[in-house]
Amino acid sequence: MALDRLQADATPHEKARQLVRGLQIDSSGLTDLKVTVEVKGSPARDLGPELSQILEQVIILLSEGKKVVVGSETKELTTTVAARQLGMSRPTLMKLIKEQKIPAHKVGSHFRINAEDVETFRQKQLAERFAAFAQLRDSEAEIGMNEQPQV
Fold it and tell me: I want to staple 38 with a disulfide (CB 3.0 to 4.6 A). Which of 16, 44, 94, 137 is the partner?
């Protein structure tokens, strides 16, 4: 279905709904949508499966009346932003950097942290919390704390 066949005065949400109906896209899962882009005077180009899936999800979300925001993620974070993402204070993060528990490098007089390192640390923290919870649950079971009292 070509975009130029969509109702010209329709809103983006209405156009997306028309596309979903016309292409018979199932909002519960991805189809084998192939998106081709043609710029006047140039040959048509296939966007490939990854970009096609992204555009399909955008179309589905718009057809459901949802707002779609596209952004980019920086590779390096300030300590303030990294601390916010990790759910801790900046002084706590600086302590972890000083103890070399999270890698960082200096840019001038300020520290910067790679976004991947922040995510890796966050995942490690989460795994440690789950392990501690499982250990606590096992300890409670050993001493019989999780048994229901009989009335």
Answer: 44
Name the residue type at position 145.
M
Smallest Cα–Cα separation from 63: which of 105, 13, 5, 117? 13
Rounded to whole angstroms, the Cα distance separating 51 from 16 reads: 17
Question: What is the C-alpha separation between 1 and 118, in angstroms, rounded?
Answer: 43
C-beta of residue 123 within 8 angstroms of C-beta of residue 115? no
- In this structure, which amino acid lies at residue 14? E
Strand (E) positions, 21-143? 36-37, 45-46, 76-78, 105-107, 110-114
pTM: 0.48
